[in-house]
Automatic annotation (TrEMBL), chains A, B:
This is Prephenate/arogenate dehydrogenase family protein. InterPro entries: 6-PGluconate_DH-like_C_sf, NAD(P)-bd_dom_sf, PDH_C, PDH_N, Preph/Arog_dehydrog, Prephen_DH. Residues 8-297 form the Prephenate/arogenate dehydrogenase domain. It holds the Pfam family PDH_N. Coiled coil: none annotated. NCBIfam families: PRK07502.1. Keywords: Oxidoreductase. It comes from the Bacteria.
Length: 307, 307
């Protein structure tokens, strides 16, 4: 076991965008003695095998988890429990079980009762992704410079938490620790509600009678197209997010709707100052996101333009 | 006058993102015998002069419009009338006056009574842009492959309309003709409401107490950052858009809010099928926008990722 190796055997369950990116980042870091990737779908697994981002591949999640020092569950939030049931009987004493799900309290509550008492369940969520899915959509640098939020339960084993933290750092992430509840509130506003309103406006635009779909498509460069990218994200993943983070999403959605009502009133009454004031305040946040290295300066998302 | 020259003298009033891009595209096409650009701000004008995207530069809009065969007004929608007042006295008989404003009915109503009866007022709107402003943000290829909507009044001079259409085509655009009213409805859903909800969510996120601003910034890669780009667009331009396209924006915003209420209810009642159904329908529009050449396939807006 060299210096770089963090775990003798790491198992990743689910070879999608995130699972395959974790696999590539683990390999890039040389962080596993043996890395095994499992996917329930034969076709996806053989695609993964061709891409070659692990040492071993198996359709059998139980076989993958056997003897693993770390198991990373990378499936939709609503499928975590069924994976938990499958792997629980073979988990090694002292193994760490983590996940990458976009909701944290629900995942912990689903997995915790299923796993033996002698493993360390420490949920996590890398705040990085794209709108695409599957093993070929992943890449090793997905987590570089992005935050990974780890939400350890009360009384967590500090050694296990440190090992997991160090692994995410080796994969390029910055790590933050918080409670699952707080994670779910933060992500409701920075990710879940933004996705919801993107899905919603694309739905609204598709259903109009006065404006045809082909007009919506032709003139989408005026702003709409940027919402369609987000609204092209995986339906299963996002259904599970909303079903499992209901309270925080409804809370943040309520705030959003209140603010939108005020803005609607400002438009109705021709209150240009109120509009100008909001539109000025919102610029500052953009600047701070760029300064924090969480986005690029390039106009129009760096879409290709030639001079 | 060579074959490529469409107008002997073109004047552009306003050297911002769009005005300077029109200038560059006119020069690239060799479409003007003489191109003169005017900006009221000395500093902006001398920046424009350094960038060199026209034959002549002047702070005096009236001087620019004098003897022009085509005047392109490229200022915020609320400032069109004051430019109209300035240039009206010197407009040549038979000249074409157009604009690039994001709202069309209001602009026509503001300009039409101000201009002499012997000029052709034919408003237009290139559906292309970025979130940036000013002369250095412009580029010649901004309109390539994008649509320009021209909204001629009833009884328009067909020859003048054709000359303007050909010019936009020479600048790389595809041209569509429609009424000003229909334009304003189409743009309300494809551009104005998307901007409004982006501004709104960024405002909501800035005002929370349970989630700090620095958390919003750190975890913005989960979706939020894409809204901040749009919400960094010019406040004056967007205030004017909402003040001048009130009815269509309120109408489309009403539809958006109704649909959002239905989605909220689906989350509250745990109706996963309704969510999954919407999230699946919205993917199709994305595909069609890419097929129509109005966006790129690259994941994550082609943000830089290394393998
Ligand atoms: N996409 C993002 O931007 C992003 C970002 C951060 C975190 N996440 C989280 O990462 C997790 C995975 O998302 P992803 O983007 O990687 O999705 P993905 O590309 O669609 O991959 C999903 C993976 O889960 C497997 N799976 C689905 N249902 C399953 C079930 N019932 N039992 C066993 N395996 C199942 C899939 O297997 P098949 O091969 O059979 O389809 C596939 O391997 C989710 O929890 C999501 O919330 C996503
Ligand atoms: N941005 C987009 O994505 C986009 C897309 C399509 C159409 N449009 C439309 O294009 C027009 C120009 O927008 P832009 O993006 O080019 O904005 P911009 O970069 O901010 O430039 C605005 C220009 O208008 C001038 N201006 C502002 N107020 C004026 C006034 N009261 N009198 C005379 N000149 C004035 C500015 O002069 P200074 O140099 O003194 O500031 C500047 O030259 C707007 O009508 C907008 O709706 C914009």
């Amino acid at each position: 076991m060299t210096d770089k190796v963090h775990f003798d055997r790491i198992a990743i369950i689910g070879a999608g965008l995130i699972g395959s990116s974790v696999a590539r980042a683990v390999m890039r870091a040389g962080a596993a003695g043996t890395l095994v990737v499992s996917d329930r779908d034969e076709a996806v697994l053989s695609e993964a095998e061709k891409l070659g981002f692990a040492h071993e591949f198996t359709v059998n999640a139980r076989e993958a988890a056997q003897d693993a020092d770390l198991v990373v569950i990378a499936v939709p939030v609503g499928a975590m429990a069924s994976v938990g049931v499958t792997i629980a009987p073979v988990l090694k004493a002292g193994a760490i079980v983590t996940d990458v799900g976009s909701v944290k309290e629900g995942v912990f509550k689903a997995l915790e009762p299923l796993l033996p008492g002698n493993v360390h369940l420490i949920p996590g969520h890398p705040v990085a992704g794209t709108e695409q899915s599957g093993p070929s959509a992943g890449f090793a640098s997905l987590f570089d410079g992005r935050w990974c939020i780890i939400t350890p339960p009360q009384g967590v084993d500090e050694g296990a938490l440190e090992k997991l933290t160090k692994l995410w750092e080796a994969m390029g992430s910055k790590v933050e620790i918080m409670t699952a509840q707080h994670h779910d509130l933060v992500l409701a506003i920075t990710s879940h509600v933004p996705h919801l309103i993107a899905y919603n406006i694309v739905g609204t635009a598709s259903d109009l009678e006065e404006v045809t779909r082909s007009e919506v498509i032709k003139y989408s460069a005026g702003g709409f197209r940027d919402f369609t990218r987000i609204a092209a994200s995986d339906p299963t993943m996002w259904r599970d997010v909303f079903l499992n983070n209901k309270d925080a999403v409804l809370e943040m959605l309520g705030r959003f709707s209140e603010d939108l009502t005020a803005l609607q009133r400002a438009i109705r009454w021709g209150d240009g100052d109120a509009l100008f004031d909001l539109f000025t305040r919102t610029r500052d946040i953009r600047r701070r996101i760029i300064d924090a290295g969480q986005d690029e300066e390039a106009a129009d998302f760096g879409r290709h333009h030639e001079e």
